[in-house]
Design brief:
Chain lengths: ~475, ~50
Amino acid sequence: MTDWTIEGLAAAIRERKISPVEVTRECLERIERRDAQLRAFITVDAEGALATAKTLEAEAMAGRWRGDLHGVPLAFKDLCHIGGLPTSCGTRTREYFVAERDCTAVSRLTAAGAVTLGKLNMTELAMGPFGDNAHHGDVQNPWRAGHVSGGSSSGSGAAVAAGLALGALGSDTGGSIRLPAACCGIVGLKPTYGRVSRAGAMALSWSNDHIGPMARTVRDAALMLRVIAGRDAHDATSSPRSVPDYLAGIDGGIAGVRVAVAENFFFQGVDPEIAGGVQEALRVLAGLGARVEEIRVPDPQPMNDACNVISRCEGAAVHSRLCRERPEQLQPVVRARIELGFRIPAHDYLQALRLRARLTRAFVREVFAATDALVVPVIPEPAPAIAQATAGEPREVARRQGNFSRLTRPFNGFGLPALAVPCGFSRGGLPLAFQVVGRPFAEATVFRIGRAYEQSAGWHLRRPPG
Amino acid sequence: MSDSQQQPVELANLAAAIERAAADLSLAEEPSRFILALEEGAGEEEQP
């Protein structure tokens, strides 16, 4: 199971070399064996998964195929509403979030034949980049127990890296797909704002939330995006743009593609092993024919500040009832974050929204006039020890959280597509990663660069122990 | 300094950062122009 890709497994099922029931059972057995230690799942739906797999198997035997994911077992962050399963959003409340209808992204994947294994662990209310959770257990890094998995889509990162699921959905408000992907050594895409519907998923910050795929390979992430992207009547912010076939040109190579590396901001204070890994990845890209050059980008810090204000205000609005009625149920750092949001003046929130529009226009114009994609680190250091990351007073933890997500958060504000790609390991055996950032709706370009690197470097073929 | 004492400081820092950056915003600037920035910034490759 740990060697299959989504694409490979879907093809094997179609050729009847393996059955949906067989692979679903194998995933459930791996979950049973590994998850007491990893803590990647909040809810495992063994019964539902096997029932779906049996139906899909019967359909396959009759020559009926639902789509590209027929029989492929996936799992979803526990903020996606799925009828019949509880959605805790990482809180102590088992059924914290209920939507009018199932999460659109999940529905599109299951309509294409995916089997739902269950709901994945996450940081409480998606507030925090380390994957610690006092209610459901701290998600462990599959490469090294005791180290963070990254968050907030912590269970998604760990489950895919450990081969408990072939792919997963995450959500990203300040880096919550890319951080766990980077920490766990898998691929994660935060799409362009509006590319994927957020309907049926808990909001943390409407202005900064994105839903996206997490998988072991770039091709698998592209395949998942092709299924979930596109206009949805239930999310007014979803874009009416047509969805390209992200797999069509993905192996076309990158000869002549202009790749820029930011000389300011993104390497300041970054661990030398991370910086070295990204620089080495740039040399690989240059060797593949990319035209790599250093550029100075408009300072991303004002966008980080604007995102902080926007996310705190919107998060406080969404979760005010929980915070006011049952504050004792929230982890102290989550509670402090929401309470700060209550106190930000409306004036500052609105100024931050206005500012975001101007900053985005300037960044897109300036950066993408000169290049096709930007390559920068995802995490400032290899996944730290959980005890070290979460120790101390809430304000100290919050400062550490902000520092850990400072390289990803600007792209939530800019709304740009950003793909986290593994690029080696630290001396301590923890994954390194870079992100490829493209112009709006240029996911195809971002995938093409990530795929060319991945094929050449081969890090995606490594597996964590167990 | 306790967390309750620290919060106003953090709040003030955030507000000051926004005020500084937003000081010269055009009167015509409004939040929905963010979506326009994405649409205008999209390349031809991904046009419908």
